[in-house]
Specification:
single chain; six-stranded antiparallel beta sheet; alpha+beta; paralog of FGE (formylglycine-generating enzyme); about 280 residues; globular; four-stranded mixed beta sheet
Amino acid sequence: MLFRSRVVPRVVQTESQTLETVQVDDTGLIKAKSQVSVTLLRQPLPDGSSLYMVLLPAGTFLMGSPHAQGHRDEEPQHLVRVNAFYLSQTTITQRQYKAVMKKLHPCRGKGLDFPVDRVSWFDAQGFCMKLSKCTGRDYRLPAEAEWEYACKAGTFTDFTYGNMITTDLANYVGLHTYRDGPEGIYRHGPIPPRGFPPNKFGLFDMHGNLDEWCLDTWHENYVAAPIDAAPWIREGTTERVIRGGSWHDPPLLCRSASRLKLDPADGEDFMGIRIALSLRTE
């Protein structure tokens, strides 16, 4: 008997969504709320469920941060041009991962609606390859510059919500504070996506919850970095960039510009996947 993997029909299905985002003052209190409208591509999955990709507009942004705010590896700040692209609205859930990979992944978070964790860079690449094969679209991990552009969403502050973060807005180790901000709670693990307000691009959990893999290899700083948001790959370097911070990190590591490195074979409790799709593939 000949078995064939199910191929999801290549049908572009887009829809609009209106969401509420927030801005906070320097103490972490909400000072303003606003409505954002986003365009979503709904990607059907082999089990009948879906994942949602947000259309991010083309633009130019200032990547990195000055040393007074961050670390030397976030310098020099530089302008980067980014083409319009899609980014998954949330990190990939265990349900979505199972639908594509045909198996459950062992995770710290217990439940199909939790984000898939303990994924290595190689696991993330494998997910993108299988999703691309069954959909006819070239899904991939985001470039590091694309990731930061998506996180900042037009802001110039330390976080997408402002210059302060609290555990009402992100999942991190609340026993640690950011600057003179308040202490919060420590959840000791990831939580399901959409637990906090989205940013101005309509993306959830860009700060904390799970670190997210990028395509790029690690570079010690941004000297000679690409200005067109292309993945920056150094031959002979194995370590890959992770972004966003996690439930296991202090808030300092959850800033929009914060960046860390990890061996691509490591699949820790705090590692997750967010995927991208270039417009030219549509």
